[in-house]
Design goal:
By secondary structure, the protein is α/β, with parallel strands linked by helices. The chain is built from 10 helices and 10 strands. Residues about 310-313 have low confidence and may be disordered.
Length: about 325
């Protein structure tokens, strides 16, 4: 792909009962004449209008969940027909998906299923400039994190090293891994996951020579330093950080970057990005939602689109 050729970016509205439609049309009004990319709305507006008559703004429903599913299926088809180059999704209510009989913890897992992939084949990465974080475990209860981390960590490291290479063109990324427990377990005094399996898995992965792995580090110190580097506009020491669980890192990323932080799915046949906020049911229909997240997604795509490798995440 030539860097001067317009990029076709497919956009989905997300849950029709939320702020997704509002932020998309605000984004479109401001950036529809951008010469760097073409905006391709994937939602079928006729079907969308039919859904609107059956829903109430600010409330999850099976109608919305089903609409979101069909839209993602269409997006997948358009990519495979070479009609879009990248996918940007609006926010979707997990409750709406479940009410539609789609028992997925989010669009990340739903897109994996559409592509006949296992949830362990894909990764959720948050990007805030050069502060990049992958979630070793995603939308699961906190009492399931330890067992899930033990199962997933080797695959997370493998997938993440590949993603850094294909998306960001970093051949041998430097990856820092946070521990699960406070103070990274204090040699087993506070928790034993670090000594029982995390350190062993990091040592084993280091022999593959596809990335430089460091850790496990105490999460508070690791992410505090990364946050200070971001605030003071210093380069990050690592190309990617691995967080043990969802709320270990996302409060910091969202607090530092607001809507400028981008949610990225790696491991699909295409690169999918999403805003890092939810459906905003409480403000749906009030015309106060910001389209800054969609702008951040499009800007990140423009940064990485110079490399043909970035089309395959």
């Amino acid at each position: 792909m030539s860097v001067t050729s317009p990029i076709n970016i497919g956009f989905t509205l997300g849950d029709p009962a939320g702020i997704g439609p509002e932020i998309f049309f605000k984004f479109q009004q401001n950036f529809q004449n951008n010469p760097n990319f073409n905006i391709v709305l994937i939602d079928d507006l006729k079907a969308y209008n039919q859904v609107l008559s059956k829903i109430k703004l600010g409330q999850a429903s099976g109608f919305c969940g089903e609409h979101c599913y069909h839209t993602l299926k269409k997006a997948d088809f358009l990519y495979k027909q070479n009609l879009i180059d990248y996918l940007v999704t609006g926010p979707v209510s997990k409750e709406s998906l479940w009410m539609a009989g789609l028992n997925f913890s989010g669009q990340t897992e739903l897109l994996a299923s559409i592509n006949d992939l296992n949830s362990d084949d894909i990764e959720m990465i948050f990007v805030l400039d050069d502060f990049r974080v992958v979630l070793a475990t995603r939308h699961i209860a906190i009492n399931q994190v330890s067992d899930n981390l033990k199962k997933r960590l080797p695959r997370v490291l493998e997938n993440s090293a590949l993603a850094m290479n294909k998306i960001f063109n970093i051949t041998k990324p430097k990856i820092a891994v946070a521990g699960l427990n406070p103070h990274a377990g204090e040699n087993g005094i506070i928790g034993k996951e670090e000594t029982e399996f995390i350190q062993r898995m990091l040592n084993s992965f280091s022999t593959k020579n596809t990335a430089t792995i460091s850790g496990p580090f105490p999460a508070d110190a690791l992410f505090a330093r990364a946050g200070q580097n971001y605030l003071n506009r210093r380069l990050q020491q690592y190309d990617l950080f691995v967080a043990a669980y969802h709320d270990q890192i996302l409060p910091l990323i969202k607090g530092l970057g607001g809507f400028r932080a981008v949610n990225m799915t790696a491991g699909l046949p295409y690169l999918r990005l999403s805003v890092n906020h939810g459906t905003g049911f409480d403000i749906a229909g009030k015309n106060i939602a910001s389209c800054e997240g969609l702008l951040a997604c499009s800007q990140l795509i423009l940064k990485i689109s110079h490399s043909e490798k970035s089309k395959i995440a």
